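Memo to structure team: turn this sequence into structure tokens by end of day. - J.P.
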Amino acid sequence: MTQVRLTIDGVEIAAKEDATVLEAAREAGIYIPNLCADPDLKPYGACRLCLVEVEGEEGLPSSCTFPVADGMVVRTDTERINMVRRHVLELLLSDHPSDCLLCAKNQRCELQKVVAYLGVNQPRYKKLEREPVVDSSNPFFTRDSEKCILCGKCVRVCKEIQGLGALEISQDGRFSTITTAGEDLPIAESKCESCGQCVAKCPTGALLPKRYDWPAKEVKTTCPYCGVGCGMILQVRENRIVGVKGDRDSAVNQGRLCVKGRYGYDFIYSPERLKTPLIRDNGALREASWDEALDLVTSRFKKIISDYGPDAIAGVSCARAFNEDSYNMQKLFRGVIGTNNIDNCART
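Reply from structure team:
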């Protein structure tokens, strides 16, 4: 793709001709405060924090919607720009709780980051008073309207990426709020599929997983739930998985996950998870060794084949198994047992 050259804060950089100023700055490692912009979503220009000065342009355009051009000169960090940003930020903070230390998003909050960058220590505007709405109906995450800054990311990712449109912005002005589409129902009663994409995109504590622990390390892996092969990053602490996020570098899912991939890891630590084979003996299950269990299976298979033929046996492969294991399973049933009765739990 053709590139253009422009100057941002005195640094000459190259950018794709269809890029925005914000995208070009990001690629060059130049930080421009923003709350509603996201690489996965269409330009929105709602938060008005990514304003910049462009030579030859009147006013302060939003960098997330302003396209680059060859020879363009941009300034991102002048007193004029930051004065306007601070006014915008102070208005946001007038409708936002200030108990950051007690918020589960503390030190991971994008609003907190922008406040620190712009040096807003004491907002001047009186706090708005409106009744907060906390929706805990979803089994995986909580929605808190008091911490919402109306960036629209949750609404946009649900519509643009997931194609579902479970959320919408209702009413206007200071009465605007995020609700479930059509009717203001609890999340659990809406058409939400609990994929968690909105939670992953939320810059504040308005959407939070019900359980979160700070991870000590992250491990890249592949989701085991189905054959799609989504890339995922396990957040690990004390050798236990405490969270999961999508791997943006994965060509398969580009950081997106379904409800199983993002939240379905509890089975690993379930006390009901079998750790040894069980054999039914006199109507009761007892623990057995692998050799004893496999010998029993072999003898039963032989008897069934002898009495009823190989098509009396069928096999179901687990979607959590490796592709190689599923291949060996079908080869065993076709080549050894002599039946084509095989299936997979992820087929439908």
